[in-house]
Specification:
The structure holds 2 protein chains of 2 kinds. The longest helix of chain A has 22 residues, at 142-163. Helices cover 65% and strands 2% of the residues of chain A. Chain A has helices at 10-29, 49-53, 77-97, 99-102, 108-120, 126-138, 142-163, 171-186, 191-204, 208-224, 229-241, 249-261, 266-278, 283-289; one strand spanning 2-7. By secondary structure, chain B is α+β, with helices and mostly antiparallel strands. Chain B is rod-shaped and about 100 Å long. The chains are: A mainly alpha, B alpha+beta.
Amino acid sequence: MARVVRPESYARALIAALALCIALAPGYAQGGPASGSGTPMPSPSPLNPDRQTNPDSGSGPGSGTSAGAGGVSGGSSALNDSRQAAERKQFLNWFVSSQEGLRLAAHRADIEALAYASIAVGVPVDAYKLRIKEAAAKGVAPPVVLAALREDARLWDELGNALSDKGWPPAPKAADLYIAAATALRNGLALSVVLELFGWAAPARAQSERVGAVLKALTLIVAKLPMEERDAGRLALELAKARLAVGQFDELAALAGAAAGRSIAPGEFARVCVEVLRLSKPLEELARRLSL
Amino acid sequence: MGVLYTMKRVKPKRSLGIAAKSLMLRAEERASLLVEETGTEERLALASALFPRDPVRARESAERIIGALGLPNAAAPRKRLPLLAAAALVIALASSLITLAVVDRAGLVEVRFVLAAADADSVALVADFNGWSPQGYVLQKVGDGDEWEIVVTLRKGRSYAYNFIIDGERWVPDPSAPALLDDGFGGFMSSLSL
């Protein structure tokens, strides 16, 4: 069970801010560089998961070294070629030097081929690294990892093609979004729904983390209330645009489960849900309208 | 001295900038004229007369100019210490509020992960936010019960995937999570939206 304990208290934040002011003051007074890192919450690892997940330098999302193709817009083919070459080199270096890569040495050629093809269509190579790390942590057998990567690559390449030259998602967060999308597709969400959502999110410059959360929420909803792609697409867009906090997405999925328990038609759930979201009403209103 | 005299006669009010600029131009014109008309020694003497080096006289001159132009007197900071302290306090508070807003915007929340595992000797939390590494994410047993827990600070506004590892080898999803997701490796993971 995971439960939110409490938001970071304002008092603690204020104390931290004042401490920061005091710490910085001598630095300025002496005319030198400010002492300290200047980051408000530097140490706990979950606050900076990108660094935590990518101890190897420059290899992870957020490192800024990998220009996920989602973040590449236009530009000359020469630049694109050089970016791809850099990503290939970076991936190869990581693959041959990391523990996670070494355990997949027998499948290196296959995995390289998958990764390089994905890079060519703009998939951030960090998506591969994160999945390989996850597999290594879970102790997944190398042939299973290869099969899973093949499936991921198929989905990622579709998305990469759809997002090419859109300039979205931003490079540091692109890998997470690709992984979220692959998880959604693997768990039953239709590709057309994902593409519809991305089709809106790219020009709208939507927050990629929220879009990823929408995909997961929708996956949970559709798992309980299998609905038509058109309904799922509308719901996805409304959920992405709505004011509803991401923290309430699980609650929404639970309501979908309750609706399924009451044999409410998936289309009806989607219709009412879209209405409530458009009106920026709380989820209690959805529960009330559906008599849940 | 003529320049200074001219300065004294100016009454800068609303058009302070223009008046000051006009004075500067006139001073420059006057100085260049003098320089053109005189030799080196004379120039030095004139310059010394125009811009007195004597600190007392210089201060007097400066105060006359400052008074005439109605400028704030920056040469007397001690008289303004309380004002400066107040300004510093305001700046500190303002920056604190800005920092506070940034921290709030970052949206951190503490999340308590709990697993009931009566027979377990150890339980760890692995997730996408810690690179699926149990190091540093070992749950503590709560009292004499069968519950294990850990509190983790996470950012709001996104979804997380996680599992528990029992006794270092058994990966299990959260039984109380709203749904399980296929992880593509033959296992399942739990999802949490914050």
